[in-house]
Amino acid sequence: MLKKLYVLILISFIIFYVGIFLAPYTAYLGEGLEVFRWVSFYIYAIYSTICHQLPQRSYFIFGHKMAVCARCFGIYTGVLIGMFIYPFIKKLNDFKTPSKWYLIIALTPMAIDGTTQLIGLRESFNELRFITGFIAGFVGVFYILPVFLKILSKS
């Protein structure tokens, strides 16, 4: 049962992750076909609810910005890789989360990067945004996935 839940969560997240690339790809296709322009518009609109999508803070592929900024892309890439390796590190029926200190340590670089930029001490750059997001997303899986599995296994 837990293995099926894990696979369902993983597949759902992969679909979400693919959308990050699908938005710029359909925008590229939309340069020639109107229907793809509308598909791209709606994909970007969906992802705009979770990300600011500022062009200067985003990576570009197919000549268009990705559906999320560099930091969010790092977070979701970290989550995806963390989800793939999770069952090799931890048993699916172990719902215990690690010490909160690992999460605090993992979130600290992102907090420092974001805060120092916000208060004007310096300007961050996309590679750093990606790396700090990746660390947070990767570690975050070990806190979020056990909770999801526990909740869904009781349903």
Report on this model:
- The chain is built from 5 helices and 2 strands, in the order H-H-E-E-H-H-H.
- The protein has helices at residues 2-29, 34-47, 70-89, 100-118, 126-154; strands spanning 60-61, 64-65.
- A two-stranded antiparallel ribbon has the order 1-2.
- A hairpin with a 2-residue loop joins strand 1 (60-61) and strand 2.
- Helix 3 crosses helix 5.
- The N and C termini lie close together (11 Å).
Short summary:
This protein has 155 residues and is an all-alpha fold. It contains five helices and two strands.
Write the layout of secondary structure elements.
Elements: H1 2-29, H2 34-47, E1 60-61, E2 64-65, H3 70-89, H4 100-118, H5 126-154
Antiparallel strand pairs: 1-2
Helix pairs in contact: 1-2, 1-3, 3-5, 4-5
